[in-house]
Each structure stands twice: as structure tokens, then as C-alpha cells.
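look at this stuff:

>
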Amino acid sequence: MMELDEELRNLVTQACGYPPGNPQRQKLLTKIIRLISGRLWRESTPYYQDALQQTWLYFCRNICDGLTGQTYDPTYGTVVTWLNAYLKRRLQDFYLNHHREQALTLPLQVRQSWSSGNTETIDFTDNLQATPQVPPILENVETWAKADADGELRSIHIKGRPDVTCQVLILKRLPPEVSWKELSEEFELPIPTLSSFYQRQCLPRLRKFAESEGIL
């Protein structure tokens, strides 16, 4: 272990002796990656690969030049320790974002949409620790909209646009929602047309479902 750490330090020194983009630097960095990839923190979470990819980008950008963060300093620890610390921070970010969305932002945003007609996202990050867990209602809403048992959501559409139905808009506006700007570009319709139709036709049906489920 000590020998590997010493080898890694030497390889980093050699690699950083070459200018950015130099083939010899790339060759040495690739060798470092191969040596340390098996020693990085591992866990079986759905966002691990995303966090790992960010970690390798961080490594390439900051091991020598500090382009997006602090340049690696061997006096503070080994390359593995440095990267593991970054990887665990990214995993924590993904974890917090995932659970914030699932437990707070998503259900509360949907609930707020139903009760007030306001579909803007509310960020409850500051209250993450103090806010009690809320019911996982999002899956129920999605199941209801997709099933559309009586065909009502599929049959109600913008005039002349049978492809832009309440079912389509409800599913697209469920968090993490597609923005009105993106929907406008996708359907080639003005934002006010889409938003007005959603408020008049789709939101009341969402509210009715919420009331039947005892959510509102």
C-alpha cells in the first residue's frame, strides 16, 4: 500500500511536469487512473456512476492545474484519499437531492399546484431536517394519469391539437417537470396557450383526484 502511494506520488509529479494536452501527460494520467480505480470508494446506489464520472473529471481538471477546484496537494494525503473525499461529497449531494425531491419538493410542489394553481417549484432544502416526512403521493398521481381509466384525460386537448392532451401535460408537468419553455418548443405552441389550457382544463382534474385521495 505504501509502495503504491509512493508510486502514485511520483507519477503525479512526472505527469504535472508536462504541459496540458501533452501526450506524455495523458499517458501518465491514464496509468494513475488504472492504478487507483480499484481503490476508490464503492457503493451500490443508482447515482454512483454519475458521481464517479464527476470524480474522474475533477481528477483530470485539478490533479495538476486546479481548473475547477484546488490543485492536488500531496502534503494533505494520497491521491486516493483526495479523490475519495471528493467522491463521497458528490454521493452525498446526489443522495440529498434525490431524497429532497422524493420526500419534500415533489409531493409538496404537487400539493401546492393542486391547491393554488401555482406550478412554480418551491425549494424546501433549508427545512430538510425540520420538515416531517410527507406521503409518497407522486407515484399515485402518475399511475392515475397514465391509466386514465375513463379516457377523460386523453380526450381533452387543445383545440386543433389532439396530441396536446391533459394526460400529456399532466405527466410532463409532474416533478421533475418539463418547463413551459421546453413544452412550447416541443409542441410549437405559445407558452400562454399551454399554461392557460393547463390551468383551465388539467389542474381542476388533478385537484379532483387529489380530493378523492384525501390529499387535499
User: Anything to note?
Assistant: The CA atoms of residues 2 and 153 lie 65 Å apart. The first strand starts at residue 157 and ends at 158. Strands lie at 157-158, 161-165. The longest helix spans residues 79-116.
